[in-house]
Design goal:
Number of strands: 6
CATH architecture: 3-Layer(aba) Sandwich
Strand content: 15-25%
Structural class: alpha/beta
Shape: globular
CATH topology: Rossmann fold
Number of helices: 5
Radius of gyration: 14 Å
Length: 146
Amino acid sequence: MRRSSVTHTRYDHHMPHLVVDAMNVIGTRPNGWWRERDGALRLLLARLQQHAHAAGDEVTLVADGRPLGDLPEGIHGGVTVLYAARGGRNAADDRIADLVQTHSDPASLTVITSDRELSARVRVAGAPVRGARWLLEQLDALDARE
């Protein structure tokens, strides 16, 4: 399994750390994202960067597929980008579950997904879950303020 060299250090225990299931959030709205999957990922990243900056949240975005050439694993504008460690069904879900299970304080993470199976897995490991629609509402509210 491919491991990221990115570490997840928390400097402020009051600062939320969102772990976002990218394709689950992207797939929540039928806006044609499937025609430009890479563009949809870049758009979500840009919106999460705005959110992280405005709210002060730590954000990790976990995506399926191979890393985009211009978007390798690492920190991009304040958001940590990770990719599934393998291909296939539930690959990003496994990466998220592994991240939660190996984190020193899983309760400090909030996983953003509407996937029931992934939600159950991370809750058992100690992380709370919020749905994809909740995050999109937060991002929409931020867009409306700008």
